[in-house]
Every structure is written in C-alpha cells, then in structure tokens.
Write a structure and sequence with these properties.
Keywords: Oxidoreductase, Peroxidase. The chain is mainly α and about 350 residues long. The protein has two domains: about 5-145, AhpD-like; about 170-340, AhpD-like, CATH 1.20.1290.10. Helix content is about 65%, strand content about 0%.
C-alpha cells in the first residue's frame, strides 16, 4: 500500500547508505507484515505501531499506520487507537497489550517484570510479548531515523542557521576521580522476564524480526561508513545512557574504549554526564545522540549545526542518526524483556 506520507518517508530514507536503506525496508515487512502471524496478526501490530507513532508526535508516520490499520481491521479502527477513551471498545487483552506497549515506547525504564506477569494473566505467551516488543522497538527506530534525517535535509537546504554557540556546551567535570573502564562497564548478566535463558534466545521467539534487527544492527554499527566505528560506539553509549539501558551502555562503553584506546571519555560520560566530555567533536556527537533518545525526541536543528561546526559531513551525521535510532530499538528490547545485573541471581 502506498500513501502520500509513505512516499515522503521513502524520499527521506533514500539518502541512507544503500545497505542500510534496503535493510530498513526489510524491517517494515518483517515486523509489521511477517509471513508468520501466529503470535500477533497485522491488525495487532499496526495498532501498536500507530500508538508508538502517536506518543512520539510523529504525525506523518501515524497517518500512514492509521491507513494500514483501517485497511486490515476496518474503517474506524485507527480512531479507536488514537482516542484512549475509546479503548474500551477493544478486548481487555488488547487494552492491556496496548497500554504496555505505550509505556515501552515512552520510557522503557519504567517497565518491570510485574507488567510481563500482567500480560501473562491476560493470556499472552512469550512469543506474543516478544513480538509486541519488536514492533514497539522497530517503530521507535524508524521514527527517530525519519526525524533525524529530515533535520539534516532541512539543514542542507539552507533553512537552518549555524551559529557558533548554537547549544550551550557547559563546563567539563574536571578533577573528579574516575573508575577504570572495567569498573565503569562491568560484564553484566541479562536475566530474562520471559521464557528464555539468554537475550538472543528470547528474541528467537520472533525469528523474522530478529533476523531483520540483527542485519540492520550489524550494518549500522560495523559496516564501512563515513563515521568511524569508535564514534558510532560513543553515540550508542550516549543514547543508551540517556535511555537508562545498563546492558547496552556496558557493551558500547567497553567497545568504544577498545576501539579508540581512550580510557577517559566513555568512562567520564557514564560517570559524570555530557558535561564531562571536553572534546568539542565528541561532545557534539554525545549531545545529538542523547537528544534523539527521549520520547518524543529532543533533537533540534541546532544539534545538526553543531555537528557540522565540529567537522562531521552530511554522511557522517546520517550515520550518527542511524546509530542513535538503532539504540532506541535495542534498548527497548533489553530493558523490557529482562533485566541486566552484575549479580549472580535469578529475578
């Protein structure tokens, strides 16, 4: 199905590297329209994705998803999702799932194992919970990708001024005693809240989404690109810290230290926040990635201007946006299907 908004979205995504652009298209098919709809059918997936777009204030994408939902569930189905007061027209399990997914989209740090238990009481099994999480996470990724790329396009069109001090940089956190990278980023154990013995096993309950997620993650984080891999890891760390994902923060923090041989920047960022990053190029990367993380995203034209000021090219900025958007996906899976801990315990 092609709509005016989907055409606009395709035009925005067309500027991505060919591999990432192709894999982004594959994500929509795998997550919203999978061949196997045993866990969640297309209507359920469209309802969830629409609600995620709405709480992210992404109206164009919401309109596209609303049209898709109406096409598979009947005219007016999208209106019910838009209006919380009409959720009573849905079944109790659908209401519970939609409310859970809205919270995952808004702030995954507030999701707990108790909510997974409540979904089980409504009759949802592990495959359904994982599939719903993938829809929320993948939609969160797409929304941030679109928003960031649109800002870059506007800047390239000359509509955004680039003042030297467009964003307050703040003072650095000098003089504080920092832990070692191993102390700041310890190896963590992921304790599942669903039926699985590891994070990867949990995601295998929705194999099509897992395949799509793994492929695009590897392309964005590891494949040759304008932005150096160490900078991509720094951006992913900043995004994960902003979201509050300890598992992802540890992974990206350790990786950034290994790649850059810089034992200070990532540790200082994790311990003292963005103000502790004195290098202006790294600070611009950290601020932009962090700004793309909340719901709705706080990325502004001024962030793009600062990235240009410190020397990032258009392609490099697009790479950074893809990394931060990808973190919104992986963070939501890690934080809402289980819990990261350094303790050897069962939760």
């Amino acid at each position: 199905m092609t709509t005016a908004s989907s055409v606009r979205a395709d035009a925005v995504l067309a500027v991505l590297r060919p591999d990432v652009r192709e894999l982004t298209a594959n994500v929509d098919a795998a997550v919203l329209r999978p061949a196997d709809q045993t866990a969640l059918d297309r209507a359920d997936r469209a309802r969830i994705a629409l609600r995620v777009a709405l709480v992210n204030d992404e109206q164009d994408h919401a309109d596209e998803l609303a049209a898709e939902l109406d096409s598979v569930a009947g005219d007016g189905a999208a209106d019910v999702v838009r209006d919380v007061e009409r959720w009573a027209e849905l079944s109790e399990p659908q209401q519970a799932l939609l409310a859970h997914c809205e919270q995952v989209a808004l702030d995954p740090a507030d999701v707990s194992v108790a909510e997974i238990g409540e979904l089980r009481e409504q009759g949802f099994g592990t495959a359904q919970v994982v599939a719903a999480a993938q829809v929320v996470a993948a939609t969160s990724f797409r929304i941030r990708l679109l928003r960031g790329l649109r800002l870059v396009e506007e800047a390239d069109g000359g509509s955004v001024a680039q003042p030297a001090n467009s964003i307050e940089v703040g003072s650095t956190a000098d003089g504080c005693e920092l832990p070692t990278p191993d102390e700041a980023f310890p190896q963590m154990r992921w304790v599942p809240w669903v039926e699985a013995d590891s994070f990867d096993v949990a995601l295998r309950h929705d194999p099509e989404a897992l395949e799509a997620c793994s492929a695009i993650y590897n392309a964005i984080m590891s494949d040759p690109a304008e932005l150096a891999v160490a900078d991509r890891e720094l951006a992913a760390l900043a995004a994960s810290l902003r979201t509050g994902c300890e598992l992802s923060s540890g992974v990206h923090g350790r990786r950034q230290v290994e790649l850059s041989d810089d034992r200070i920047t990532s540790v200082a960022l994790a311990e003292a926040g963005p103000a502790s990053v004195p290098d202006q190029r790294q600070r611009a990367i950290v601020d932009a990635a962090g700004a793309l993380s909340p719901t709705p995203a706080a990325l502004k034209p001024e962030h793009i201007a600062r990235l240009r000021e410190v020397g990032l090219t258009t392609e490099g900025i697009r790479d950074l946006i893809a990394v931060a958007a990808m973190s919104a996906w992986t963070n939501r899976l890690a934080m809402t299907l289980g819990n990261a801990t350094t303790r050897d315990t069962d939760w």
